[in-house]
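Quick one: structure for this chain?
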Amino acid sequence: MRNFKAGYYINQGTFKSFQPERINKQWILENMELVNLLSQADRQLGRLDMYSEYIPNIDLFISMHIAKEATKSSKIEGTKTNIEDALLDKDDVNQEKRNDWEEVNNYISALNLAVENLKKIPFSSRLIKETHRTLLKGVRGKHKLPGEFRSSQNWIGGASIKDATFIPPSFDSINEYMSDIEKFAHSEEFYFPDLLKIALIHYQFETVHPFLDGNGRVGRLMITLYLVEKGILKKPILYLSDFFERNRTLYYDNLTNVREKDNIVQWFKFFLVGVIETAKNGIETFDGILKLQKEVEGKIQELGSRSSNAGLILNHLFQRPIINAQIAHQITGLSLPSVYKLIKELEDLKIVDEITGGKRGKLFVFNDYLQLFQ
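Got it. Here's what it folds into:
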């Protein structure tokens, strides 16, 4: 990577666009600091991946990880929905927050669909386009070619292209760049460690900026998809958006420094530190889930014959930690008076808390669980 060149600028008349070099080629890893970080990242990912085998009903908890990822990734783009809002039904969301809620829930749908599609579609432009289509469906950006690569010039920063902070490559080269990314992702001719591969793919995707809108969210989502497809993770349980959001300035600076200073090594270091930190946090979260699960299962045993219905409600809460009486009625089949009584007992056991403060339309949250993701 000593002779790495990010790309070059070409004159487009009134502006210059950046044309990155292709990435599907031989890469030689010489930096021992990177090798050490790579080893640590692989080790932490292996520890995290073990939980997908040993935690019962892990899919319950993955839905919460996805909700957290959706809110953090969207927050980078300026959306203000938090994880509690994202878990509400649309009718329970304040009118002024609904646009943001829809964007976050589109992200959840897009990620779920993409993971499902990986069973029949490889990591590819087709998968990325289908994911993008879901992401922009019916929200801001719905008129910006959902599911299609751009056919006009875009830019990043600035009120117009004249004062843009970065101008991606010309639209007529997008298909070539995306084909190059796809070939690199699946190349057996050129070996490169997978974590560095996806770090480079993410950088290249954000530099190419192939869509008119939604590039940041799709680019971050691609990281998880790649790790799942390559079998590095059995389940989608690693998401870097929280790390990127907390280190937003560094995130953008490191991407910019690759383009302006050819400093790909610093980007790799930042990315690997993100993987290490995020994997460690994920392990702590899963440890906290196991501890909390044991604790609340012990508590509901105090309910005697009602503990089995309380268990049904708990299973729901571990997937979606906000509930109302109507949902509890559907889950348990109990009459509404019995449901209200059971929820009151869960309140008394300090498992759920009422959050609306009203007499009607009450919502109850499993706070101890929600806080594990905050």
